[in-house]
Q: What sequence folds into this?
């Protein structure tokens, strides 16, 4: 039985890895996106649509992300 019965653990994850996430206390775990790759894939899809206007865009584009683990999800 817990010494502190009314306490609980909480893990928190943010998105976009903003600079403030690392400065928070505790530092916030975040999902890191590759904005350059997202932009490149969007331009590629746009150019494909411009060059092939009758083609129906029917593919899914997946860009990998990275989990930046910080204190907000560490277990002690």
A:
């Amino acid at each position: 039985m817990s010494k502190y019965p009314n306490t609980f653990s909480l893990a928190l994850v943010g998105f976009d890895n903003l600079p403030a996430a690392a400065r928070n206390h505790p530092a916030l775990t975040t999902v890191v996106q590759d904005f350059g790759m997202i932009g490149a894939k969007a331009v590629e899809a746009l150019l494909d649509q411009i060059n092939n206007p009758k083609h129906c865009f029917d593919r899914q584009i997946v860009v990998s992300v990275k989990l930046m683990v910080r204190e907000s999800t560490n277990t002690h």
Notes: The mean pLDDT is 87. Strands lie at 13-15, 29-33, 65-68.
